Amino acid sequence: MTGRGAGVLGLPGAVCAVLAFGCASVLPAQDCHSGEVRIYVKDTLEGPVFQARVRLGSPAKEIGEFTTRTEGVADFANVPCGSWTATVTKAGFEDGSISIQTAGETIIEKSIALSPKIVRASTEVTDSTPHVEQSASENNELRPEDVKTLPTNPATVADTLPLVPGVVRTPQGELLLDGAGEQRSAFVVNQSDVTDPATGKFGQTVPLDAIETANVLNVPFLAQYGRFTQTVVAVETKRGGDKWHADLNDPFPDFRIRSYHMRGIQNETPRFVLGGPLIKNRLYFNSAFVYVIDKVPSRTLGFPFNESKKESINSFTQLDYILSPNQILTGTAHISPQHTNFVNPDYFNPQPVTPSYAQQSYVGTLTHHFGIFNGTLDSSISVQRFNAYVGAQGSQDMVLTPTGNEGNFFGVQKRDARREEWLENWTPKLQKFAGTHQTRIGSSLTFSGSDGRFSYHPVNILNTVGQELQRITFSDPGVYSRNDSEATAYVQDHWTVNPRISFDYGARVEHQRLASSLRIAPRAGFAWSPFANERTVVRFGWGEFYDHIPLDVYAFSRYPARTITNYAPDGSILGVPLVFENVIGSVTGPRSFFIRGQQVAGAFSPRGTTYNAQIEHTVSRMLRLRAVYLDNRSVGLISVEPQLSGTTNEILLNGDGSSHYRQLEFTAKVTWKTNEQLMLSYVHSRDRGTLSDFDNFIGNFPTPVVRPITYSNLPGDLPNRFLVWGRVNPHVWGLTVMPIVEYRNGFSYATYDAGQNYVGIPYSGETRFRNFFSADARLVKDFKVNPKYTLRLSLAGFNLTNHFNPLLVHSNIADPRYGTFFGNYKRRYRFDFEVIF
Predict the structure, then answer these.
(1) Which segments within 207-337 are labelled E, that is strand?
(2) Torsional class of 370: left (φ above 0), alpha (ψ -120 to 50), beta (otherwise)
(3) Confidence band of 440 (pLDDT split at 50, 70, 90)
(4) CA–CA separation, 210 vs 499, rounded Å?
(5) What's the CA gap between 231 and 174, in Å, rounded?
C-alpha cells in the first residue's frame, strides 16, 4: 500500500528535494523480500492459451511449475529477489521464454506469445537472440509497470496514449489517433465496445491500475476488430492475485503555489487498488478506484478566473470465479461519473462563455471462458449506460467577435444513451494442413439507443467596433429518440506455412439497421523472415474497415433549426432572414463492391482502405528496430455543409467526406534490464481531408457557425514528431530517472475574417503554431524505513528547457493583434513522496 503527497514547487522546493535525495542515499540498504510473478500466455491471435505449462526458475533453483487455465494466466507467489527465466510449453506450439528480474514485494506481470509449431529442418543456432513474432498485425503495447511512474503520472488508459508514436493530445485535451479524432477509432475492453453510442467518443477510460495491457493498433488486420476507420485501442484487464495486495497513491492534495505562497488546493487524485483471493484457488477480486478533483489553469487568462474545475470518480471492479480447470466466469463493473465546470477556458473563451459538462457512465460485463475440445469458447454479455448533460453558465446570447467571445455558451443538451451487446468467440484447436492453422470465429449482436433534448441560445457575430454582422437564432423542436441494432460475424486464420512465413487472412460482415447497409470487410497480411536466424521480419497487410455511426448522426433532423439574419453597417437587415432545416442526406460519395444496401437517407457507410509495409529487426537482446509505412484512404465520411436554394435552405448531413493519412514511422526499443528501457520514435506524416466533420457540429460541444465544405490539411496534421520516453538507472545514489522528451511541428490553424468565415486555405502548412519542444523528467529514490515500510521520494520537472510552446494565436485578420502567439507553460517542478507498505 502506498501513500503519497505532492506539491508544485519553484527553485527552493527543488533544492529541498535534492537535499532529501542526498539524505536518502546515505541510509543503509535493506534486505529484499519475496514478491509475486504473473505470466500471461497468449497465441498469435492475442487470445489466451490454456493448459500451457509454465516453469519459473534458474539453472540453480526452480521456483515452481503451473498449468494455465482458460484465461491463460500463471501466478507464482513468494518469488525471491533475483534473475529468473519463465519457460512455457504446450503441444502444437513453439516453446516460449522470457527473463524476469524481481525486486521484492511487487507484482511483476509479463506476457509470452506462443507461435504454432512447425517441423523444422536441422539448423545450427549459435545466437540466443530471440526472433521477432510472426504476425501481420503488430501493435504498440503499453503496460502499467512501464508507464505509471512517468512524470505525467497517468491515472487512466487515455493518459498513456500520447506515448504511442501516432497519438497526440491537442491543447484542448482532445486525443488525435493517427491524425483523426476519437469518433473514428474504436475503444474495446475485454473485446467489448465501450465507446459512447451517441457520440462515438471514448469517455472516461479504465483506470490504469486495473489493466494488464493496452494495445494501440493502427493496422489491425485481424477480422475480430471492427467499428473504426483509423485506430483500435484494445484493453485487457487483470484479475486479483493469489495473495492480497493493496496500493494507495496520492492520498494528499497538490497545493497551488503562486509567488512562493500557497493559494489553496490545485488538485487531489487519490488512487486505490485492492486485489486478492476471496476464496483460495476459486474466487478472485480486483478493484481500482480513482477520485479526481482538478483545477486546471489556462496560461492565457489571469488568476483566479482561469481554471477549469473537474471532479470525477473512476472505479473498475473485476471478479473471476473458477468453475473448473476449464471454465472461468468473469464479471466486471466500470462506474465513472464526472462533472466539469468551465470546459477549456482560454483568452478567446473566458469562463462565462465556456460550457459545463456532466456524465454518468455505467458498464457491466459477464464473460464465460470455456476450454472445450482443445479450444476456447468465450461468451460475453455487456450492459452499458451513458448519461450526459451539456450546460451553459447562464442564459445570455453568445457573442462572437474577432478579439474574443462574450456571453454564454449557446448549446444546452441532455441525453441518455444505452447499449447491450452479446459476443461469442470460438478458437478451435490447431489444424494441420500445409502447415498449421490457428483459426478464430466470432459474432456479436448489439442493441443501442439514445434519447435527448436540446435548447439553443441565439448567437450574435460582431465586428471589432461592436457592429452586428449576423444573428443566428434557433427553433426548439423538442425531444428525440433513436434506436439501432447491429449484427456482425467474422472468421480469421493465422496460417503458418513454415518457420519463416505466415499469413493472416479473414473477413468481417457487419449490418447496422439505421445505416440500411450490409458491409463486408476483407483483411489479409503476411509476415516473412528472409534470413535463417529469424531476427528480421517483413510484414505487409491490407484491409477494408468501416466506422460505426454514432446515434447523434441520426438525431440530426431533430436538432434545432437555425435562422440567419445578416445586417448592413447601418443596422438594417440585408435581404430576408434565411431559414435552414436540418436534413439527413442520402449517400453521395462513391459506393463499394463490399457494400450492399438501399440508397436512402442516412444510408452512410464511412470506410477506410488501409495498407502497410513494415520491417522489424532484433539486433540483440538490448535493441529492437522497426520501420513502418502506413497509407489510409477513407471515403464516405459524414460531413455537414450549408446549401442554399431558391425554395429551401438546408444544413445537410451527407456521406461525401474523405481523408488521406500517410505515415512513415521509425521506432527503436532499447532494453538493459527488465525495469530499464528507452522507447525512441520518429514519425513523418501527412493528413488531408474534408474539414466539415460531423463531430464539429453534433458532438458534445458544437460550433455555432457552419462553413462550406473545404478539403485541406486536417487539424491533426503533424509532419514531424520525435518522442523519447522510458526508465533509466544511472547507478548514482540509487536514483531512477524517467524522461519524456518530445519535439514536433506545431498544429496548423485556420484564419478568419470579422464574419467568422475562412480566409485563404484553412489549416495550410503556412499557418502553424511554432515547433513544440518539451523535456520532462522524474527522479525517484527508494529506501527502506523498516522491513514493512518503504519511503519513496521523487522530483518531477516539466519543460526543463523553458521552451516557448504557445497555446493560442490571434487568428482573425480583423484582430489588431493578428498573428501573435501567446500563452505558455513555463519550467516547473513537483515534489512527491510515497509510503509503500
Answers:
(1) 211-217, 232-237, 245-249, 254-258, 261-268, 271-279, 283-297, 307-324, 327-335
(2) beta
(3) very high
(4) 36
(5) 15
Q: Tell the residue number behind the cell numbers 533453483, with chain if given.
A: 61
Question: DSSP secondary-structure letter at 697?
Answer: H
pTM: predicted TM-score of the whole model, two decimal places: 0.87
CA atoms within 13 A on the CB side of 597: 24
Question: 734 — alpha (psi -120 to 50), left (phi > 0) or beta?
Answer: left
Q: 3-class DSSP state for residue 121?
A: coil
**What pLDDT was estimated at residue 18?**
35
Q: Which residue has the cell 479450444?
A: 375
Separation between Cα atoms, residue 147 and residue 154, nearest integer Å: 7
Contact 72, 115 (CB under 8 A): no
Classify 730 as helix, strand or coil: coil
Q: In the prediction, which pLDDT does 92 show?
A: 66
The dihedral built from the CA positions of residue 222, 228, 233 and 238, taken in this order, carries a sign that is: negative
How buried is 19 (Cβ within 10 angstroms: 0-12 exposed, 13-18 middle, 19+ buried)? Answer: exposed
CA distance linking residue 11 with residue 32, whole number of Å: 35
Other beta carbons within 10 angstroms of residue 757's beta carbon come to: 12
Sign of CA dihedral 590, 662, 808, 269: positive
User: Which residues have C-beta within 8 Å of that of residue 336, sequence separation ≥ 6?
Assistant: 203, 204, 312, 313, 314, 315, 359, 360, 361, 362
Give the pLDDT confidence of 361-391 residue by residue, as tens digits: 999 999 999 988 888 999 999 999 999 999 9
Which tens digit of pLDDT belongs to each residue from 611-624?
999 999 999 888 99
Q: What is the DSSP letter of 117?
A: P
